[in-house]
Each structure stands twice: as structure tokens, then as C-alpha cells.
Amino acid sequence: MNAPASSPLFSAIEMAPRDPILGITEAFNADQNPAKVNLGVGVYYDDNGKVPLLECVKQAEAILMEKFAPRTYLPIEGLAAYDKAVQELVFGADSAVVKEKRALTAQAIGGTGALKLGADFLQRFAPGSQVWISDPSWENHRALFESAGFTVNSYPYYDANTRGVNFDGMLAALQAMPAGSIVLLHACCHNPTGADLTDAQWTQVIAVVSQRGLIPFLDMAYQGFGDGIEADGQVVRRFAAAGGALFVSNS
Q1: Handedness of CA 87, 93, 96, 99 (dihedral sign)
Q2: Could you say which DSSP state residue 177 is in?
Q3: For position 177, what pLDDT does the model report?
Q4: Could you tell me how far CA 94 lies from the centroid of its own chain?
């Protein structure tokens, strides 16, 4: 679709505010300081400040080039082999959820796309619910769920004085949430604080979520960057073992 920029439709449109994260990258690129370090975007850099091409990516691209397979449309839920591998990565290959085919996986455009897909699904099938995100959280969490039509609230999470989790405040907030509330939790490597719950604290959270009839939505964007692939995936697996509805976005 093409339309002249001078048309009435476009003349009334104002420039959107800069993205709070990518805007930092723009400022970083414009900075002339040779000692600058970009900590704004969750991208892996080597010691030279460059984004490396991982060896596994090189090999995967080489395999794809050798196959000369047709690039046709994927099924709506994505590539079946990929979905299966993701399920086993997230829940564990021996998980009852996977073996009993109680998990449904849909390939999305990255972790943000997965969150958007989940938010739209929940708005359609649980439209009266409210969403709760940690204070602070990745700011796009709020934007994604608000754009889906939800009211987004915050629950206490970070204690600046201790530089850790305000667990008492968090637990009290969970216990006070109405049944059917959607609570967004960071499965590992909390963004932006880096403060994660202990195993014992997760046990209490899982129990309260189950008892209160809350809908957990686990965002796991950094599996493997905390304590390793298996350890970082344990929270999702524990929620799955507890039963009940569960949403997971991972990338």
C-alpha cells in the first residue's frame, strides 16, 4: 500500500516517542567516547565489543545452504520439528506435559511476538482478567498487555535497599489478587534487576498461584544465561508439574 505523506491521514500523525531501550543504542552510536560500553540492549558482545557469529549458527546456516530445500509457507503453529525441540528444551524431554501431549507450542517472532500472541489469546478467552507485572519489569510487558486491552498493575518485587527481592511484599500482593488474574513472572534472569527468587521462594509462589486460581505467564527470555539450560528451566517445569493453566514465552 502506498499513500502520499501529504495526505490528511498522515498529516495528523505525530512522531512516536523513542523506544526506551533502542533509544539508548541510538545515543550510544552517536557518542564519540572510545571507552563507551552499551548495556542497553540484551545482546551478547565479545571482549572487543563486537557481536560474534556463533559456531553453531555457522554450522546451521551451512546445513541449510547444502539442502537446497524449498522455502514455502510454514504451518500456522510454525515448524513442527522446531516446536517439538522447543517443548523439550522448556519442559524437559521426559516431562509428562510433553509425553502426554498436554503442551501446545506456537512459533512466534521472537520472545516479544510470543508475549503478544499470548496477550491476544488471553484477551479473547479471559477478557475480564487484569494483568500484574513486577515492579520494575521489562517495560514492553506493560505496553504489550495494554495494547491487547488489559488493565496492567504492578506487584512489589525489587528492594533497592537490599538490592534483592522484596519477597514479603510480592507474596502479599499475590495473595490479594482476585482469582483469574494474570500474573507475569520472570522464570530466570529477572529483567531489569537480575534479582531472582530462591528455590524455596518459588515453592511458595507456585503454591499461592495455585491456591488463588491465578493464571501464571512465565517469560523466559534468558534460559541458559543464569545458572545453565537445565537450572534456568526448573521454574517452568515446576509450574507445569503443579498442574493448571500455564503460559510460557521463551526465546
Answers
A1: positive
A2: S
A3: 98
A4: 24
C-alpha 23/C-alpha 94 separation (Å) is 43
Query: What is the mean predicted confidence (pLDDT) over 209-235?
Result: 96
At 134-189, the pLDDT tens digits run 999 998 999 999 999 999 999 999 999 999 999 999 999 999 999 999 999 999 99
How open is the CA angle 34-39-44, to the nearest 5 degrees?
A: 100
Residue-range domains of the chain with CATH:
17-72 (no CATH), 108-250 (3.40.640.10)
Output the 3-class SS for 106-166: CCCCHHHHHHHHHHHHHHHHCCCCCEEEEECCCHHHHHHHHHCCCCEEEEECEECCCCEEC
Residue 99 has pLDDT above 60, yes or no: yes
Whole-structure pTM value: 0.87
